[in-house]
Amino acid sequence: MSEKRFSIGRFLRLVVTIGLTAYLIARADPAKIAANLVAVEWRWIWMAIGLALLDRVLMAVRWLWLLGPIDRDRLPPLRVIMRVFFVSTFIGTFLPSGLGNDAVRTWQLAAEGVPTSQALASVLIDRVLGLVSILIASTIGLILYPSLIHNPWVAGIFALTAAGSLVALSLVYSESSARLAKRLCRVFPIHGVAARIERLIDALLAYRRHHGSVTAVLVASVGVQFLRVAQGWLLGLSLGLTAPFLQYVAFIPVIVLVMQLSPTINGVGASQWGFEKLFGLGGTAASPAIALSILFLALGFVGIVPGAVLFASRRGGSARMSAPQ
Q: Does residue 241 fall inside a structural domain?
């Protein structure tokens, strides 16, 4: 029954993704969108690609800092950790769940000998700090354009992310919150799950002794968000858009937040809606806004190239090693 519900949910997400994307592109005139994409100036595209690779490296270093609480004798070598990060990013992109990347990273790190609870804790705190950084950057957008908060989708997603982040951070910094969560696990036990959740909470609490690393990761995460703002701005320049840089500062983090929590697959459809809606407030027409959203999504796939290369080389290496002599 759960397998059937999962398949139905995946199918509905696919329908929403395709339907929303097709509707927005058709409404904005596909011919005009194509004309915008064909006429891009590639010098700006290459600069955006460089920043995309830089932000992926910064994300890898950010996660490396979060592995501090793990016992050094259980921690794999640096080259293995980096391979786990980039390969999981590549594989997770093609999984149906938006959390596929996190699941693959946890599984691969556990396969290297790290306790599953500690591996999951490092991935979850990385995800939470990433969302907090988006909230910080989005707040700037809401200050610059207060009318954004009147949109029910933006307001709902912002409130949901803020609430979830506060709950997760309370488990990291507050022993009383952690004890309460453990008690709830015992009051409402789920067979075989309560003990795992308690181990995970203990692993999250270990970050109380690593405030420096957590703060550094949060600062780096905010830096990643503004690298994405710069990427969006360069892509806009490649399309010849005249929107001022301040609009990118205001709109891109809010769009990324909508993409993160949207019911669509990998933010497809939600990104088109966000770019058209928000940049439309700044005077950008629908066709170039949709073209910008397509470039922004495509740029996201640049970040998985290192993982794809590592994944292919490892598979190829394994094949060569196992081939008969």
A: yes
In a domain, 40, yes or no: yes
Question: 193-200, long-range: CB within 8 Å, 24+ apart, which pairs?
Answer: 196/116, 196/117, 199/115, 199/117, 200/117, 200/120, 200/121, 200/124
In a domain, 286, yes or no: yes
* Number of domains comprising the chain: 1
Chain Cα centroid distance, residue 150 = 25
Cβ pair 214, 171 in contact under 8 A: no
What is the per-residue DSSP string for 26-88? Answer: HHH-HHHHHHHHHT--HHHHHHHHHHHHHHHHHHHHHHHHTTTTS-GGGSPPHHHHHHHHHHH
3-state secondary structure 148-184: HHHCHHHHHHHHHHHHHHHHHHHHHHCHHHHHHHHHH
208 within some domain? yes
How confident is the model over 221-257, as pLDDT tens digits?
889 999 999 999 999 999 999 999 989 998 998 888 8
Q: Is pLDDT at 316 greater than 50 in this prediction?
A: no
CB burial of 154-191 (b: ≥16 within 10 Å; e: otherwise) equals beebbeebeeebeebbebbeeeebbeebbeebeeeeee
How far apart CA 124 and CA 130 sit, in angstroms, is 10
Residues in the chain: 325
Main-chain dihedrals φ then ψ at residue 262, nearest 5 degrees: -75, 155
Domain range enclosing 196:
2-311
What DSSP element (H or E) covers 114? Answer: none
- Side-chain half-sphere exposure of 152, counting CA atoms within 13 A: 0
Predicted TM-score of the model (pTM):
0.81
Distance separating alpha carbons of residues 87 and 12, to the nearest angstrom: 28
For 256-289, what is each residue's pLDDT tens digit?
A: 888 877 778 778 888 999 999 889 988 899 999 9
